[in-house]
Amino acid sequence: CQNVSCSADYKNYQIFGGCTPTQHCRRCVKDGLVSQEEVAALRRLLVNGMKYGGSSGGASILDLHSGALSKGKQFINIYKSLEPEEISEIFTKNDVAVYRDVKNRIHNSIVDEFGLNGEKLYLTNPTFFSRMNSTPAQTQHDEYWHSHVDKIQYGSFDYTSLLYLSTHGSDFHGGEFVFDGRGKVVEPREGRVSFFTSGSENPHHVNRVTSGERFAVTISFTCDPRKAIQDPMV
Ligand SMILES: O=C(O)CCC(=O)C(=O)O
Ligand SMILES: [Fe+2]
Description:
The chain is of the alpha+beta class. Helix content is 23%, strand content 30%.
């Protein structure tokens, strides 16, 4: 991991002991936390979900918690617009168990790396699968290449994690993850997990994908129990 000085962003929110990053801000990359079989299951889930939707531009998301799925220029809620049989074509109980296990492992890794109290770090919204490709943007949601700070963009985030389900240089070109400033790059590769504190100490963007398809999962954590979300139900 690489240490960075924490920004003052967290002071604009309530501070939660044993969780809020006020002293230790960093960026970590871990390989080997997630197995090839798990990656394959999650990637299949994402590809299956996209059969029922997909953005008309270059960025599509599927959020199993809220049910949001990109479709054309908008979003549908899979739990409202799809039949139960269609939902079961997207994911099985086993796939959801894989998702939960992987998420818990990443949670534990963040807790260890930052010395947190595990009971005080919660999953938050939005947590979602993403597919990015080189299709020209149709709406702002497709413009994934802009620099941003997750805590400012999404509010509740304190720790952001990213799980990559495809590999830069073989499944797709472009699409590197870049921390702005000194331009430190994380090359997406299958099973790689990157996590970092979500404040202004870690502004970042994704380079435009020039060919192929980039699959990832954004898994977000908060220290605020009021912002906690539950595992998806099946
Ligand atoms: O997919 C990525 O590598 C980064 C996505 C991202 O920055 C975000 O979801 O906030
Ligand atoms: Fe981000």
